[in-house]
Structure formats: structure tokens, C-alpha cells
Amino acid sequence: MVRSVSALLLALLVTACGGRSDREVVRRDNDVFSSQPTRQCLTTLKSANVRFTPLPNQSFSGGCQTIDTVKLMSFGTDTTNLGPMTCPLAANFTAWAKHAVAPAAKAYLGSEVVRIETMGTYNCRNINGGRSGRLSQHAFGNAVDVSAFILKDGRRISVLSGWNGKPDERAFLRRLHQSACKRFGTVLGPDYNAAHANHLHFDMGKSMKDGSAYCR
């Protein structure tokens, strides 16, 4: 009887983890992060009235991992598809939404952004879909892809149609691209290559040897 109960509990545990044998959860405590800079980053989020939940550290096969990440719950603008994000990425993204997206929408489009659409954050894959052999910053929850903006007046401004679209949409999106270059380590848009025709890629990695942002 004891063996049967133990076997059942083990099966339930495996099911709860999605059956993934390549995942290792190593978080000790939801409120403990591994470095002082990250703990300071959490303080920055709280002081900016950002609601978030610390996530368990996880390691996956292939070198992918999510270490010291958070789940953004609320920061003033509804945003879709946000998964694990490193704290610095979350802090810069929320500041960009508040100090760049909001004023740019009023200035160029005469309306308010009520929703930011993204294509997600964490994704265990290589740069350029596998051709480079190097892990993308998405593989560490250190990148986010922004695809569109929903305005209060009902308009949807997408990167795909707006980058080379109406003059006001072009100006709006280019302003956001420019402002992102001041906050993120790497910023890639439609002018970079065809793979980025439908989104703006932001990550906290430094691609330049001198530590400056890589902005294309």
C-alpha cells in the first residue's frame, strides 16, 4: 500500500512538472536573488510601482536557463505574452513603456497606448533561428520582442505594417526604436534584417566590444 501511494505521488509530481526531465528548479526562496545588483533592481521595480512576482531559477537542456527572473503583473500598460524576464530587462522595459511609449503615442498619434503586444520573452533557441550556433538572449529570459501597440481610439499600430506605413506611424515607431537604444544593450528592427520585419527586439546583452548598445 505504501509503495502504491509513493508511486502515485511520484507520478503526480512528474505530471505537475510537465514531464520535463531536462528542467532543474534551483530557487531557494521566492524573495532571494543571487546578487546585490539584482536585489537592488527589485527595489527599483517596487519604487516605480511595478507589480511583479519573483520566479524560480530554472536550468534546461542546451544551456538555456532563467536565473533571477520575474513575472510582470502590472506596470501601467497592459502587455501581452510576457514570460520570465531578468530583472534588468523588466526594469528597462517598464521604464521604456512609461517614459517613451506613452509620450510618443500622444505626440505622434494623438492617442493613448492601452496595450503593448509582444511575441514573448523566454525561448530556448539560438540566434537567427539556429543558424549561428549561439544561444539567443531569449534563452535566458533576457530579451523581449515587441510587435504592436493598441491605441485608446481603437487603432492598432504594428511594426509589420507601420514601419513603412503612414508618416505618423513611421515617426512613432522610429522614435520608440531610437529611445530603446538608450535603455537596452541590443535593439533590432525591420531595417536590420527580414527576420525582424514584424517586431522590435530588445535585450540586455552588450554586443559591442566597448560595451555600448548595438542599435540597428
Descriptive keywords:
Extensin-like_C; three-stranded antiparallel sheet; 31% helix; Extensin; seven-stranded mixed sheet; Muramoyl-pentapeptide Carboxypeptidase, domain 2; alpha+beta; globular; 216 residues
Task: Characterise the protein shown here.
The structure is a single chain. The chain has 216 residues and is α+β, with helices and mostly antiparallel strands. It has a domain of 139 residues: 2-Layer Sandwich (Muramoyl-pentapeptide Carboxypeptidase, domain 2), CATH 3.30.1380. 31% of the residues lie in helices and 22% in strands. The chain is built from 5 helices and 13 strands. Strands 6, 8, 9, 10, 11, 12 and 13 form a 7-stranded mixed sheet that branches. Strand 3 and strand 4 form a beta hairpin. Helix 2 runs parallel beside helix 3 and helix 3 runs antiparallel to helix 5. The chain is globular, with a radius of gyration of 19 Å. The N terminus is likely disordered. InterPro entries: Extensin-like_C. This is Extensin.
H and E string: HEHEEEEEEHEEEHHEEE
The CATH class assignment of the domain at 77-215 is Alpha Beta
Number of strands: 13
Question: Could you name the ranges where pLDDT drops below 50 across 5 or more consecutive residues?
Answer: 1-30
Sheet/helix structural class? alpha+beta
* Percentage of residues in helical conformation: 25-40%
